[in-house]
Amino acid sequence: MMNTESAKRGWVVGITGASGSIYGVRLIEVLLQQGYPVHVVVSNAGWRVLGEELGWSAGKREQVLQEKFGEHPGQLHYHPFADIGATIASGSYQVEGMVIAPCSMGTLSAVASGASDNLMTRAADVMLKEGRTLVLVPRETPLHAIHLENMLKLARLGVKMIPAMPAFYFQPQTIADLVDFQVGKILDSLRIEHRLFTRWNGGQSATKNSE
């Protein structure tokens, strides 16, 4: 069940230029459906990938987001990528935490090094300094040593690493099933209840959303 205080504070969702923009889109949708305020930041490369993978237009960005998510009960707040003076750039502004999904290796590297020259990395830095929840969803393969070292560095600081690695034990039938599994794992890390996938029950047959 949704916590009232968490709902008031809301969540920050960042979408970078890594492939897999559908993960961030679906996460925003589910959070809004549950009534959470959601602060959205999309990098310039992220808008390009949204266009290439989902056919979104980057022309009127805030308008596009309202068209995609406006019907849901939660309140959507869009922040331009370069707006370093946005509310979420300050630790004094209360949010519950932040998820970057998908997270490019460039953004992950910037967060690991403490760089904060855009709103995405600044908001992530705020989560670290304030001790709030920060979840990164890396989407890259193969991974080289620098990628792994940056992930280890952040994991040691308490950042949750949830790579885009959907499971298959629940016999997914569609791409949407795989996306929902990934988003469900993110929601688990945020301690938000959901029914997006069937949980492992010891190998017995189960039906999706049967919990």
TrEMBL record:
FMN binds at G17, A18, S19, S43, S104, M105, G106, T107, R139. One of its GO terms (molecular function) is flavin prenyltransferase activity. The keyword Transmembrane helix does not apply. It is an enzyme of class 2 (transferase). Flavin prenyltransferase that catalyzes the synthesis of the prenylated FMN cofactor (prenyl-FMN) for 4-hydroxy-3-polyprenylbenzoic acid decarboxylase UbiD. The prenyltransferase is metal-independent and links a dimethylallyl moiety from dimethylallyl monophosphate (DMAP) to the flavin N5 and C6 atoms of FMN. Dimethylallyl phosphate binds at Y169, K185. Belongs to the UbiX/PAD1 family. Residues 11-189 form the Flavoprotein domain. It holds the Pfam family Flavoprotein. Keywords: Flavoprotein, FMN, Prenyltransferase, Transferase. InterPro entries: Flavin_trans-like, Flavoprotein, UbiX-like. The gene is ubiX. It catalyses: dimethylallyl phosphate + FMNH2 = prenylated FMNH2 + phosphate. Its EC number is 2.5.1.129. It comes from the Bacteria. This is Flavin prenyltransferase UbiX.
